[in-house]
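Quick one: sequence plus 2-acetamido-2-deoxy-beta-D-glucopyranose SMILES, need structure tokens.
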Amino acid sequence: MFDCNYFYYIFFGFVLVVQTSLAHKTGILKNVGAFCANDTTRGDPNLIPIDVGQPRFINKVENGTLYQIGSGEDQVWLIHVYGNSGYDFGYAYGTLLRDQIHKVLPRAWAHFEQEIIDALKDLKLPKWFEELIAEKGLPIALDIQNDLVRKYMDEEVYNEMRGIADAAQIDYKTVVRLHMLGEITRGRCSLYGLWGNATLGGKTLQLRALDWDVDGGLQDYPVITIYHPGTSKLGHPFANVAWAGYIGTLTGMSSYRLGISEIGVSFPDDTFGDESMSGLPFIFVERYILQYTETLDDALSFIANVRRTCHLILGVADGKLGTARMIQYSHSKVNFFDDQNLQPLADWHPRIPNAIYSGMDWLCPSRQYKLYRAIVDQYGQITPELSIKNITSVVKTGDLHVGVYDLTDNIMYVANARGTGEQGPMEAYKRQFVKVDLNVEFARTR
Ligand SMILES: *[C@@H]1O[C@H](CO)[C@@H](O)[C@H](O)[C@H]1NC(C)=O
Ligand SMILES: *[C@@H]1O[C@H](CO)[C@@H](O)[C@H](O)[C@H]1NC(C)=O
Ligand SMILES: *[C@@H]1O[C@H](CO)[C@@H](O)[C@H](O)[C@H]1NC(C)=O
Ligand SMILES: *[C@@H]1O[C@H](CO)[C@@H](O)[C@H](O)[C@H]1NC(C)=O
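Reply:
Sure thing.
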């Protein structure tokens, strides 16, 4: 499942030596570790038309409204939550999505628990934490992890989880534990930020392709949550793309036209710093950016100053400024890249004007290069539609879900993996996308 992580290529030994010495000679890469699996195959274009239907009203409570968007098997729940506290948000969410949460949570939990225990030695966790999982079990280990991060967390996030648990009548601790899993598993993913000359009409576009675990049933109940804070202490409106019961941010856009994307790094080089179990979990760093920051600079300074945890690549794009940055992220070091200084610099990951991008991982030549080719071959012509048709599907990235953000026009496109009992291809990038007009959604009142 955590894909790339396991496959340290045995045959790669030879290739690795060649690549490393070449990189050393050109001074491009310092002390290269292992590379991810070589996959140069290309997928077919996704020719399914985007669903542009309006959201359909389903149900309503005092602080929330539930809609569905999309058609057939590719429907997504779209929920609006309002309130003056995290608890208000959570209570509305847990009331309207009670059944969906009851279906997702036990299955996802059981699945991830088994996978993590089976894969313990491949997860690159600190020894003491591995032993803790082995001896005391995953729930206890995650409770201890929660204790380590609690002081960095926004209390309102816990209040929101409490609201969900109370309204949906599920165990609060299980909700918290589910949100600690992101720190110990690694999704391999892809991202880009494109602006100016890179896109048709100079739009600012961002890709978030999430290649995580499609066997946990998360995609059975995909949910887009639109938060409408009633007070500035809860920030401003933003959209979070996840699954019933999950309020961390992996994918989303804000009403300040900032977008966020992320890649878990399994193949770093020595330019990354240390990792730590103690700090603000990255799913809440991403959420903070959408909920509280107003500009790209705000977001970057938050990332620079927050107590960070693990090895990641982040993407932040700003539709107001018309630009994007990529961030090389770890506990002890952080580096910010634009199109002029993008890393890693290698013949398989060249720089592109008005673009930042990363395919699947840091040291992942074949996947990085495929994404590079897809962007440069269509340079200047790229729209969300073209990206869906002929970038993610051809590069083959975004198993679990894909978000394409049009940060100029404030529109988000989302696809999800095949749910249980559904037909058609498994991977989200091969399926139908739905269009969500956030101009309309951010403006919806109770
Ligand atoms: C990756 O696979 C392709 C196609 O099979 C091959 O041409 C290429 O040499 C391989 N690259 C590496 C680094 O192994
Ligand atoms: C709805 O939100 C308001 C604050 O806007 C809060 O006072 C009220 O208790 C909430 N109602 C429910 C049922 O959560
Ligand atoms: C876009 O392309 C034009 C024509 O090649 C060039 O003059 C201009 O500097 C480019 N703009 C940016 C922002 O790179
Ligand atoms: C997809 O992009 C490639 C270039 O990367 C191009 O040759 C091909 O015609 C495009 N296909 C579609 C369906 O747009």
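Residues 1-31 have pLDDT under 50 and may be disordered. The chain has 13 helices and 16 strands.
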